[in-house]
Write a structure and sequence with these properties.
Layout lengths: L14 H21 L6 H38 L1 H23 L1
């Protein structure tokens, strides 16, 4: 039996939105660098462009790693659904006991 929870994570909190927002920041920084390019030396302009490319590559790498992790987690949860629930329940009880102990 498989259950699908499509609305478990809100649209605003999705990884895609985060990566898209980061890419928009990089694009804005790129446009700013181009606008200020006339006042910068060619070396500084090239350095800024190379750093922006590294940031873009980093964003894409984060996205790929997150999707790989999501797929692996999905496979694991589908393979062992009841064990996963038991583990989550046990960790919740342990966390609650530790929080209760620190409040006293």
């Amino acid at each position: 039996m498989e259950l699908y929870y499509k609305d478990l994570i809100s649209e605003e909190a999705s990884l895609d939105k985060l990566v898209d927002d980061l890419m928009l920041v990089v694009q804005g920084a790129s446009e700013l660098a181009e606008a200020a390019g006339s006042q910068l030396t060619p070396e500084h302009s090239a350095e800024i462009q190379s750093k922006l490319e590294k940031i873009k590559e980093g964003c894409n790498r984060i996205k790929e790693q997150a999707f790989a992790g999501m797929r692996a987690t999905d496979k694991l949860l589908r393979k062992y659904p009841y064990s996963s629930l038991g583990l989550a329940f046990g960790l919740g009880i342990l966390t609650a006991a530790l929080v209760q102990k620190t409040r006293k």
